[in-house]
Amino acid sequence: MSGRLRIPVATYRLQFNSRFRFQDALSLVPYLMQLGISDIYSSPVLKSREGSTHGYDVTDPTRLDPELGTEEEFNALVEELRRRDMGLLLDIVPNHMAADAENTWWRDVQENGTSSPFARYFDTKWLDFNNSGESAGYRRFFDIGGLVGIRVEDPQVFRETHALIFRLIHEGKVTGLRIDHIDGLYDPLEYLERLQRHILPEDKNSRFFVVVEKILCGDETLPREWPVFGTTGYDFARALTALMVDNEGIEVLGRIYHRMTGLEKDF
After folding, report:
1. Residue 1: what pLDDT?
2. What is the 3-state secondary structure (H, E, C) of 163-218?
3. What stretch of H or E contains 132?
4. Which of 17, 128, 176, 232 lies at 20 to 30 Å from 266 by C-alpha?
5. What tens digit of pLDDT does each residue of 170-224 get?
């Protein structure tokens, strides 16, 4: 990978699944370029649960999802982007994996408990855990039992879950990252610093382009010490929505909301 930092000017998000594959995206690249898009913002592309429509339920982070296409087809998409001087911003999911039998790491933990070689990979409370995985014995993604939290703060877990991502970056195929649910990590700052060190190990003064999914509430701001280029834009979307909403109209909606729900909360 060249050490050159690429900062997207205009991104277009593509949601990959079995009905929209790498080959489908390839045919859209010329059109997106005509629109002025500088970088494709890709949904997660690592192996996820069979039939997944979104890719955030990863089952094997060591390979691309075959439902999206082969590595050769992925490379063809990358080459077409390169030919047009466009980049690829990849969405990655360091916080959780699918709590599913398709996830061989998780299945091994279910079968072997603390004796599993993958026992350290997941954020579990063993006084509460049982082999069915149905108890509240593991950290979940919010309240979704089908997504189990992983201990990315563990160096071995970090290496194994990011090995393919780092290879794609070092081969110049991925030019930026979007980090899903950064607040779910044990130590977001330490994770982000380690991420940058692994991507640019010989250049402490440079940064790879990384943005984070961070929901800022009220007057909250992004921590200045985080080595990132910003958020994925919820704060901007909130401000833009407020700009586009008529004050009198929102009062009417509020009265309707209170009448229908009986709640006193602000709409």
Report:
1. 42
2. HHHHHHHHCCCCCEEEECCHHHCCCHHHHHHHHHHHHCCCCCCCCCCEEECCCCCC
3. none
4. 232
5. 999 999 999 999 999 999 999 999 999 999 987 777 899 999 999 888 788 999 9
Q: Which residue has the tokens 């990315």?
A: 152
What's the pTM value of the predicted model, to 2 decimals? Answer: 0.89
- Only one residue has tokens 């350290």, namely 120
Q: In sequence order, what DSSP letters do the residues of 54-82 get, joined into one string? A: SS-SEEEEEEE-TTT--HHHHHHHHHHHH
Tokens representing 74 are 């992925």
| 8 A C-beta contact, residue 101 and residue 107 | yes
165 — alpha (psi -120 to 50), left (phi > 0) or beta?
Answer: alpha
Tell the residue number behind the tokens 């999802």, with chain if given. Answer: 65
